[in-house]
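#onboarding

Welcome to the new folks! Below is a worked example of what a typical request in this channel looks like: someone posts a single protein sequence, and someone else replies with the predicted structure as tokens. Don't worry about understanding the tokens yet, we'll cover that in week two.

Example request:
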Amino acid sequence: MSGSIRIRMIWRGWLFAKIRQELEKNMEQVLRKLTLDFFGKGKHKISPNKFFEMENGFLLDVRSKEEADSISIAMKSHPNIESKNIPVHEIPDRLNEVPNDKPVGVFCPANVRSAIVYAYLLSKGLSDVRIIDGGYADLTEALKPGPVLKALQGKK
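Example response:
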């Protein structure tokens, strides 16, 4: 093995170790903030109704492409909410598509993937992130004719 190849391999190893340390440090900082007070006050979640009332929100749908193709969450009647499907396994590669200048509501039906992505986004420095609580039942309740009419009337 030539000297330059060996130096590059050592450099890459050192660089990857530094990146890993930084990621672990960020995640540790996130975990330290997740106290009883934090969870007890529900700072990590939001109801669909409350989220849809926000002035400028971003609904991050982390379901698989197949799930999103089966039941779309387009939010076309809610001009105050931008919606995008980014499956959980694509989040690291598409993080730049998640705005850091507006509230982000993370959705999946059982809140498992939402919780994972929630912690990941916090570790990446996003601070205004919540898990949209209640799964499909609460989401569809918030999208019944009455609430949709209210959203449409608010846009006039």
